[in-house]
Design goal:
The complex is a heterodimer.
Chain A (H helix, E strand, L loop, with lengths): L14 H5 L15 E7 L5 E7 L1 H4 L4 E6 H6 L31 E2 L5 E7 L2 H8 L3 E6 L25 E8 L1 H9 L3 E9 L11 E7 L4 E6 L4 H11 L8 E4 L15 H13 L3 E4 L2 H7 L6 E9 L5 E13 L26 E10 L13 H18 L4 H8 L6 E2 L5 E2 L4 H11 L5 H10 L3 E10 L7 H6 L8 E7 L5 E5 L8 H13 L6 E4 L17 H28 L6 E4 L2 E4 L5 E3 H10 L13 E6 L8 E11 L4 E12 L6 H21 L30 E5 L16 H18 L10 H17 L1
Parallel strand pairs in A: 1-12, 10-11, 14-15, 20-21, 27-28
Antiparallel strand pairs in A: 1-5, 2-4, 2-6, 3-5, 7-15, 8-13, 9-10, 9-12, 13-14, 16-17, 18-26, 19-20, 19-25, 22-23, 23-24, 26-27
Helix pairs in contact in A: 9-18, 14-15, 15-16, 17-18
Chain B lengths: L1 E7 L2 E7 L5 H8 L18 E4 L2 E4 L12 E3 L12 H8 L9 H15 L5 H7 L11 H22 L1
Parallel strand pairs in B: 1-5
Antiparallel strand pairs in B: 1-2, 3-4, 3-5
Helix pairs in contact in B: 2-5, 3-5
The chains are: A alpha+beta, B alpha+beta.
Amino acid sequence: MSATGIGASVRRKEDFRFITGKGQYTDDVNRYGQAHAAFLRSPHAHADILRIDTAAALAMPGVVAIFTGDDLAADKIGGLICGWMIHSKDGEPMKAGSHPALAQGKVRYVGDHVAVVIADTLDQARDALEKINVEYAVLPANVATANATQPGAPVVHEVAPDNAVYRWAIGDEGATQAAFAKAAHVTKIDLVNNRLIPNPMEPRAAVGDYDSGNDAFTLYTTSQNPHVARLVLSAFIGIAPEHKLRVIAPDVGGGFGSKIFIYAEETVCVWAAKKVGRPVKWTSDRTEAFLSDAHGRDHVTHAEMALDAAGRILGLRVHTTANLGAYLSTFSSAVPTYLYAPLLSGQYAIPAIYCEVDGVYTNTAPVDAYRGAGRPEATFVIERLMEIAARETGQDPAAFRSKNFVTSFPHQTPVIMCYDAGDYPASLAKALDMADYANVPARKAESARKGLLRGVGISAYIEACGIAPSAAVGSLGAGVGLWESAEVRVNPVGTVEILTGSHSHGQGHETTFAQLVSERLGISIDNVSIIHGDTDKVQMGMGTYGSRSGAVGMSALSKALDKIETKAKKVAGFVLEASAEDIDFKDGKFSVRGTDKEIDFASVALQAYIAHKFNGQDLEPGLKESAFWDPTNFTFPAGVHICELEIDPATGVTRIDRWTAVDDFGVVINPMIVEGQVHGGIAQGVGQALHEGAVYDASGQLVTASYMDYSMPRASDLPAYQVGMTQTRCPSNPLGIKGCGEAGAIAAPPAVMNAITDAIGHEDIAMPATPLAVWRAIQKGAQRAAAE
Amino acid sequence: MATVSMTVNGKLVSRDIDPRTLLAQFLREELRLTGTHVGCDTTQCGCCTVHVDGKAMKSCTLLALGVDGSHITTIEGLAHGQELHPMQAAFRDHHGLQCGFCTPGMIMTAVDMVNRKGTNLDDQTIREELEGNICRCTGYHNIVKAVHYGAEAMAGTTKAAAE
């Protein structure tokens, strides 16, 4: 391993600009003559718009224009789309209600977009918003996930009269029924997976610009996937053809899924730039972010697990109602279906699984992928069931998991996925050791002496990452392929520019991608630039989500580097007067096998461009190659997290005492960065378990729309984490990488809740387990004990 | 319009502004010092933290006119050219940042923390003192580490400066 190659904890190349305040985020972009947009948002969860009167607002100082849905429609600007078709179990296609960027006649959630004011300054735009007079006929709101499809519930979209987007199922119902019929024990659970609001620290923003001389648009936007944004804005929404629309996602301050999607605001800004003949800028404030960023999770689930007399799992059946909000966001339909149920087998050999999912409309913000996207929900179901089943049958939770682990590979689950590699007992053993599991009883006794309740919870998670084989996802309804692209441009002096379709919004690609290049070409990472996030520079790409940049994006880069090496060997062969087949390439030097003749990489690069040593008809001058990598399988990162916590029964306050994470991510490029991803994921998972929850009241008002009301985990809420790793190489990509970005957020919630329920002695508590919720659960437990 | 003057990163600046202009807006839009970020506009996330007369304050809820005549230091004023402030260097060395958006505020808070609490900071103190700064990426583990080592490094530079 070289100091900057694969496996080295290299300091990040991108950090200098961030720590000196020189990052360039979308809100830092200012175009000459720009105007500012502010959106009028619906104050009602559900209402007909009877009239919009903009006259007084138009007369306000600085106002340039005011647009409504009618203006978009007049320009034939299409609605926002959902790019994944799900079919119900009866074969019916999902019921997608129309989703105009600015409302047309109806608003469907608080925060829905009614009109936009464009003014010289942001303050003027905001002042004018208050002068727009909208007459609404308020309708009853459909808010609660569990009740969304009940007879008589307010109808969100006419196309779905019962508010069901789809009623989907996966697995073998008959085989699962048979498994339950012969069960010696059945564990049942009702779970709510609480609704979350992603909250990257950088709020969404957009700057639209129009060049009338070339009839071309530029959109700066906070996107995890600028090419996907361009594709949707061009092909579906109809802003401009792709060659006339440049999308730039510069530095992006976190995404966690919420910046995958194509939203109303960027659509309106880029369209309006042409309408008003000026660049148009919008930056979300935090309350707008709470109201209108796509939310995450929000499942109501009943699940049952069948066991035989020996404690082996026979079957699993699950029914989930998934709240998709008021409109189908870009990938929302896939999240509670194909990103969820195929992970219900967990790390376990389960012969029969059947899962039904009803996706439902409500008068709440759209719900889409948030860190983990479906996989945290699946892990919560299976890992809560495992813990409870172990408790009910009197088995040690670790031993019970061990007994049911998948131990041979490949392993075909009953729900699509074929696990290719892993060593689940190894992760568990290492985690138990690091967590000092053997001494938990002693520590519990010590806590009890202090009047505190100590609990320990295990979560053995698996996820499907490296999203995803294009043909496979196409067969499941995806509207796009999920390959990735890379281009390697070697300059005549031997420095290298990498263009990647992956997008970094905190993941450190400028460092890790450079490490791969350094390793392969034997050059310093200082001589490598990573270029991403600009559709005029990078030809095409699918972006970053689903822990795919390493497994898919770097595999594309690896493939392009293979081509560079092949071409460079040919050049070296001409220079060294040898056959390309006799050229070896190692540590940045090309040598003729069996001789001392050699030439370094930079010299070969120069020779490739001056083209004096070979005939340009036999070998093309230059050294530039590109590649697309389409994965052959998902990747399957897996591991074990153990949470140990103490609860003060007098206050319900929970303190996490120890966190142990042992993850198998396959080959790791930069352990420092990977551990950082684990830390951040755990924090979001602990946030879900202990702090965070989006709350709508019965009328559909979001009552958690600021940091005063929505509890973001802070430094003092979280422990130091012990992070360890095991490694099985991923067999389906050239680098052996599985992906690490979502693991913590997937593993953490059940680890916390298994620990809390262990501490309080019963299972009746939901997330977020706030001090009040924990205190109440303790009282409930005491009352039950007294009654018995 | 009203005239406001202040010293920002050692330079005296004076501008005619709308009286409701916030300090964060003034820094970002008038002076184009875009390293000061706005993450919540309600003084809860700390992304906009700057130093006003040597004390960490959140610039998203301060009126620019309210700090007329003050000395302001922003993240851009912390390093001397390529020579980083020890706290900046510590954030890089200990991977105390991912997306970088909360980072300027974190660093300004951390420097202020050392100024108030000294250079020998235990983890619990650091975690409690970071109460007004939210990070969504790092889970704080490496930020705590960075502040700890940054504080130690500041002790070194203070000592060196005194010698």
